[in-house]
Amino acid sequence: MGTTQEQFNVGGMSCSFCAESIKKAYSRTDGVEDVDVSLAHEEVLVQYDDDLLSEVEVKDTLRDLGYTIRDPDKAKRYEQQQAELADGKRRLLLAGGASIVVAALMGWMILVMGRFESSSLAMDLVTLGLALGTMFGPGRYIKEKAYQSLRRGIFNQHVLLEAGGFAGLLGGLLGLFVFPGFPTVHFFAVSVFITTYHILSEYTSLIVRTRASQAVQGLLDLQPDTARRVSDDGDVEEVPVDDLDIGDRVRVKPGENIPVDGEVVEGKSTVDESVATGESIPEEKAEGDEVIGGSVNETGTLLVEVTATGEDAFLNQVAREIEEARAMKPGIIQLADRVLKYFVPGVLTIAGLSFLFWVVAPLAWGAGPNVQRGAFAALAVLVLGYPCALGMATPLALIRGGGKAANRGILMRSGDAFQIFPDVDHIVLDKTGTITVGEPAVSEIVGLNVDEGDVLATAASAEAFSEHPLADAILEFADKQDVDYADPDAFDSVTGKGVRATVGNDDVLVGKPGWFSDEGIDLSNGRDDIERLQGRGLTVSGIVRDGDLIGLIGIGDEIKADATETVQRMRDAGITPVMITGDNERTANAVAEEVGIDRVMADVLPDEKREEIGRLQEAGHRVAMVGDGINDAPALTQADIGIAIGAGTDIAIESADIVLMGDRLGGVMDAYEIGNESYRKTRQNLVTAFAFNGVGVAAATTGLVHPVFAMLTMVLSVSAVLANSFAGQLLSGEGVNTEFALDERTDASVEMVE
């Protein structure tokens, strides 16, 4: 017995107050040692002393707060999320319908009947019914959360919301039964409107989070559900992958995903392992070599012995790394959170004192208790104190920045991307697919006593029937150069070595220089060029015609056109660029030198990438990570800012805070500059919003602010923040691009409604 760690996927979190409430609840629970809450991924990681607490008690804390614990099985979790969406939609339709009816009644009363405060008994009763129906129908769950928070001494948005809701309800009842002059309908309307606003906020948040949650499941879907198990007698049986045991043997045909981690015991093939290494050039696999589940078998048939199953399998390890990184990712306290932490209890205190003042203070000058003025004061304080403008100050600045980013092909998925980016001092770049294009391409042709065009034509003719990716690179380059080549008269692929072909009257070999040595071919005239090309990190294919080495072709991963410029922009901004890759050190250093990166981490596995990011963070650095592959996903999640290349894998994109829609690397620094500008707008908006809330609450304490005017002032405060966020953009003719908020990968709409 001792310290136990449990990780839960939690339903019902919608804003930073939720995360803060969970942390506070656990901090006040005996036996809990540490808790990490990831709002973006709806995950909670709890470390506790199992001598003092049981797992059930740990879970009960979350349930008592009104949150749900989703099933650890990802398929069942998805079903639960869909059910939550259905419930949220139902609540919104009910509350939204009530708000529309109340707004119509108020409009009819003012415009048609010419009344502002007084209303008929029938109208009073109808709005009372709508208020009670909204608060105790679709809004009932908010009350449960508020009660559980209050019971633990936690003041959050649910408590403030319900204080305003019940104050409106109480004011309306006083007007209905005690004080005929009270604006009964307006008091009841407050209860309806603020409840509906909160339900809308949470529903929109849930929509986006549900879409994003499918990423890890998509990763695991790369592994086939079934495999061909081969018995000792040679019989083949198709079985579920989950039924395989270590030591079983499975057969994998060309073009299929390898179903398990294992070791090749028979056969030869090329295997695309970019799922693990990020390396674009496939690996040659033969007897004794290891293969990774989820990688693609390309050319030959393999018999693979299973070496890892279940949670020990590579893809499951990556999925677990991502989930752990999400839960452990350091929380970001935004500017609004710092204000709201003290604002909510402050507003509640002021509302209560205002009511008491106008009930008690008149006695001092010989008047009776002014209950109506006290009720006006308390409700106006709660309405003006509801942190609508404060809550929107940050999101509106982010929407402005997000629209500007969208015009440049950048998707800002998270508020953290704006808040943290100005503090980033290290940007870690994956190599393959990030700094480089991610596909094999001809980099150099060397002719040895023959023309380079002759070398290319001979190689293209010999490779015309090959399905190897290196052959595709040669043929594509020959087509671009308009080189004429013919199909070979005879062709034979030598797995793991190259091809043997007859081109016209010539015998041609194209392949690894080491193979030529085995064939007794003299390589002395090309030795220096082979070493030079390999020193550049290129894969070298030799071309032999009638027994003589006539040329060499260096094939590598082409560096993106804007990579060098982007690295220089990082340096100019005072940011240290770092390359991290699963590729070998020689290739990595060659690419780094060409683009101007001094610090290189090579031969790094996916879990090690995440660890390297963590070490930089532990050293006090703010770190952004740029990547595109499955092997980058844990590191993208661990980094303070994860930036995914949009042409990459879904799991990398869903693990990131920023997505570059395309493969242009320069978008990284564009996003950095937009983040800086948006952060400045955030600070301006917070000052504006707090001025309205602060002045409004102070004025409301006088009891002279009508609830309707309080609501109008709240709308005005939001309008002021809106104008500050977008006026300059509109005047400059940029327009406001909100298309990014509709993309299924973005989290911007969540930020907008929190």
Q: Care to describe what's here?
A:
Helices cover 51% and strands 19% of the residues. With 754 residues, the chain is of the alpha+beta class. Helix 23 links the parallel strand 24 and strand 25 (641-645). Helix 4 (121-136) runs antiparallel to helix 6 (157-177), helix 6 (157-177) packs parallel to helix 11 (335-360) and helix 12 (371-385) runs parallel beside helix 26 (707-731).
Q: Layout of SSEs?
A:
Layout: E1 3-11, H1 16-27, E2 32-38, E3 43-49, H2 55-64, E4 68-69, H3 74-111, H4 121-136, H5 140-151, H6 157-177, H7 184-212, H8 215-220, E5 226-230, E6 236-240, E7 249-252, E8 261-266, E9 269-272, H9 274-277, E10 283-285, E11 290-291, E12 296-297, E13 302-308, H10 314-328, H11 335-360, H12 371-385, H13 388-407, E14 410-412, H14 415-420, E15 426-430, H15 431-435, E16 436-447, H16 452-463, H17 469-480, E17 490-494, E18 498-503, E19 506-511, H18 513-518, H19 527-535, E20 539-545, E21 548-559, H20 563-572, E22 576-580, H21 585-595, E23 599-601, H22 606-618, E24 623-627, H23 633-638, E25 641-645, H24 650-654, E26 658-660, H25 667-700, H26 707-731, H27 748-753
Parallel strand pairs: 15-22, 15-24, 22-23, 24-25, 25-26
Antiparallel strand pairs: 1-3, 1-4, 2-3, 5-6, 5-7, 7-13, 8-11, 8-13, 9-10, 9-12, 14-26, 16-21, 17-18, 18-19, 19-20, 20-21
Helix pairs in contact: 3-4, 3-7, 4-6, 4-7, 5-6, 6-7, 6-11, 6-12, 11-12, 11-25, 12-25, 12-26, 13-25, 13-26, 16-17, 25-26
GO cellular component, one term: plasma membrane
GO molecular function: ATP binding; ATP hydrolysis activity; copper ion binding; P-type divalent copper transporter activity
Transmembrane segments: 92-114, 120-138, 159-179, 185-203, 342-365, 377-399, 686-705
